[in-house]
Design brief:
The chain has 275 residues and is α+β, with helices and mostly antiparallel strands. It is built from twelve helices and seven strands. The chain folds into two domains: 146 residues, Butyryl-CoA Dehydrogenase, subunit A, domain 3, CATH 1.20.140; 113 residues, Roll (Nuclear Transport Factor 2, Chain: A), CATH 3.10.450. A hairpin with a 2-residue loop joins strand 4 and strand 5. It is globular, with a radius of gyration of 19 Å.
Length: 275
């Protein structure tokens, strides 16, 4: 059976990205361990996912506590104390996703920050994040989108992941299977919403580089490289309207997730820019 210690490094990374480096992140991981010790996890199929949810909820509570403390300080006309994040904390996340994404973390509210970090840095699906935040997946996607729009200096030419996504689309169109494999993380996931599946898309979930590469090999002929909420993605357009948006998550120069979005309500909330 998997143990907590096998996932401690991952959990520490999640807590550090959400809270910033220091004792708060260590405390969150320790609290997650205590909850793990008090819980029968023998029936948990995905322990890593379960622990990620636990530590993320703990971090969310800590962020909300920080926000409440700040408000108390403002009400009392006191200077802000060390509850606010430092520029060094911003660097932790900025380095994780590239220098072009110097996020103004201290301006994000707790749900925005959790949604952004979990999805953009750790490829957690919006369905999972929505459950943590007690919001709909569409609303959760919008939280991450608002956070992403605050990235400084991002343009269509410098959008994070652009070169990787562009190379992926070209390899897909040319049927270059081996090139696709090189661009995909071994554990990549491809998720399609219900509308995309109904339009003839793939099954709702594909897992693994070979299955995802097979799905796109020789395809994406009409997909256009597009900036989706500040990050590189792709879109299939019909009469000037996006009908399918391909939302890519790129970490360490590899594609770790592709979300195929066709739900009209979701598409209406996306900011798309031509390249």
């Amino acid at each position: 059976m998997e143990s907590f210690e096998g996932h401690r490094t991952h959990l520490t990374a999640v807590a550090t990205r959400v809270l910033g480096p220091g004792g708060d992140a260590e405390d969150a991981v320790q609290e997650a361990w205590l909850r793990y010790e008090r819980t029968d996890v023998s029936d948990v199929e995905n322990l890593r996912g379960w622990l990620t949810t636990v530590v993320s909820r703990i971090c969310l509570d800590q962020l909300r506590s920080r926000t409440a403390r700040r408000e108390d300080l403002v009400d009392a006309h006191l200077e802000r104390s060390d509850f606010s994040l430092t520029p060094e904390d911003d660097v932790v996340v900025a380095e994780a996703v590239g220098g072009a994404m110097q996020t103004v973390l201290d301006e994000l509210n707790p749900p925005e920050r959790v949604a952004f970090v979990l999805h953009d840095l750790f490829a957690v699906s919006f369905d999972e994040i929505a459950e943590m935040l007690d919001r709909s997946p569409a609303a959760t996607r919008q939280l991450a989108s608002r956070a992403r729009r605050r990235i400084r200096g991002t343009t269509p030419a410098t959008a994070p992941g652009r070169e990787i996504v562009d190379a992926f689309l070209k390899a897909a169109r040319a049927g270059e299977f081996d090139s696709l494999l090189e661009l995909l993380d071994p554990d990549v996931v491809c998720r399609a919403d219900a509308t995309a599946v109904a339009m003839g898309g793939p099954v709702p979930l594909l897992v693994g580089a070979r299955d995802v590469a097979n799905r796109f090999n020789g395809g994406a002929q009409s997909a256009l490289l597009t900036i989706v909420d500040g990050l590189a993605g792709a879109a299939w357009m019909y009469r000037g309207q996006a009908k399918v948006v391909f939302d890519f998550t790129v970490i360490d120069e590899r594609i770790v997730a592709i979300d195929m979005l066709s739900d009209p309500d979701v598409l209406a909330g996306l900011v798309l820019e031509k390249v």
